[in-house]
Design brief:
By secondary structure, the chain is mainly α. It is 76% helix and 0% strand. It contains 3 helices and no strands.
Length: 63
């Protein structure tokens, strides 16, 4: 599945959640999806937590 199709599918699903259950449930579902995405990237080794912590503390990442 291509990225635009996947994005359209996720957007459509979120729109249905918003229409059926309201704005705050939509926000909760979107936040849970974002957390799940980030956890999957971390567990998959795609995110270096050391570099992320350095960036959040304002340290330079380049030499």
């Amino acid at each position: 599945m291509t990225a635009p199709r996947f994005g359209a599918l996720i957007g459509g699903g979120l729109a249905v959640v918003w229409a059926a259950f309201g704005f705050w449930v939509f926000v909760g579902v979107a936040a849970a999806a974002l957390v799940g995405y980030l956890v999957a990237r971390i567990l998959g080794g795609e995110v270096d937590l050391g570099r992320l912590a350095d960036a959040l503390h304002g340290r330079r990442s380049s030499s």
